[in-house]
Amino acid sequence: MKGYLWTGGDPGSQKTAAPLDNARLAPWESIAVEAVGNVIEFWGFKRNQGRVWALLYLRGEPLTAGEIERELDLSKGGVSMLLRDLERWGAVQRVRVPQDTVWRYSAETDLVRMVTHVVEEREAAFVTRIRADLSEARRLAEGVGSLPTERLRRLERMATLAEHVERALRLFIKTSRLDVAGVLGAFRDGALSRKG
Amino acid sequence: MKGYLWTGGDPGSQKTAAPLDNARLAPWESIAVEAVGNVIEFWGFKRNQGRVWALLYLRGEPLTAGEIERELDLSKGGVSMLLRDLERWGAVQRVRVPQDTVWRYSAETDLVRMVTHVVEEREAAFVTRIRADLSEARRLAEGVGSLPTERLRRLERMATLAEHVERALRLFIKTSRLDVAGVLGAFRDGALSRKG
DNA sequence: CATATAGTTCAAGACCGCTTGAACCGCACC
DNA sequence: GGTGCGGTTCAAGCGGTCTTGAACTATATG
């Protein structure tokens, strides 16, 4: 989510899932990789975190940092950092293939868990904060003697609204988690080889 | 939502609903205004759009652009653009007080409608796009002869997941709209004076 | 130990959206 | 017409994040 339809309208400029530079990738891979990049960015992560995960997931077998670097046309340092983040979040696993010295990385299905989890944390904290701010404002406002009750009421309505939105949001996260959990089964079932 | 807990952790640096420069505003106003600014930014709009709307809403009576400029410490040009956006979205109304030459602006309760509406549009378009991309990828992949079925399956699962998330999201928007609509009643009911 | 290659770190810079401020327009009033 | 003021526009600057690339560490090998 960057510049969408905001102020200017400017429709039709939808950021394309561009073939970009990943000329190395098969077209279908490229499209899927970019799509995941978009989603992940939308949810507040870095686009390239999504791209890396998608590549690893689609390939199925572990890749080296160098391969990722080439396939996605990223810098060495960038790949290192992206992998570290993904690994820390449990979205990617670092594996060592027997009689080989380099690290390889394979996708965990947990990108999904990671997203729901982090988003949940973030959203919850945020929403809580807003509520706290609004009740603080209300407390202060009530302390002001000469405040027209009408203005106080407006403030209260604002707070009420915030609470309702919070409820809706929590509900969304909960149902969404359930729904996703179902699909996770699908991710896990198949004969998805995973080095172990 | 800017830099939250992403890569670095860095907790406790929660962006405060700072007293900022709006020394002119009563503390409770300032807090509430900033809170709304945060929310609105979180949903993908400009922080200052939220601040302007909040100020107008809390004040109850129409303000001039100059007043807004001073109260929120914004630039002339900025206020003009912010008001234009808000007006276009129906979140603010431009009113002319009898025997006065300047325009004044008053808050519509429709900020809420605006947010749900725009967010809905945006989210829907986005999600649709992702789905389209993924099925395109799938179509292409199926056209490739020598593709291991396992890899194809992974792609398919990705698409399935996207569909599920889409469903959850649409559900959220729908229930959220209903919920918000309920509160809108509360916004409208009271003896909220509106120049007419 | 010297060399080479994988991996990490981080300052510098690219990039991008938001805000500013000055030029400009339009209207009222003298 | 001239002056003043509200309002608009937009190029330039600012502030933020993300990426790069070079220096650095770690590890294997001869």
TrEMBL record, chains A, B:
Entry annotated with the keyword Transcription regulation: yes
Kindly give the Pfam families that the UniProt entry links to this protein: MarR_2
Q: Which UniProt keywords apply?
A: DNA-binding, Transcription, Transcription regulation
- In this protein, which residues make up the domain named HTH marR-type? 51-100
Q: What's this protein's family per the entry?
A: Belongs to the GbsR family.
Tell me the protein's name.
HTH-type transcriptional regulator
Q: What is the lineage of its organism?
A: Bacteria, Pseudomonadati, Myxococcota, Myxococcia, Myxococcales
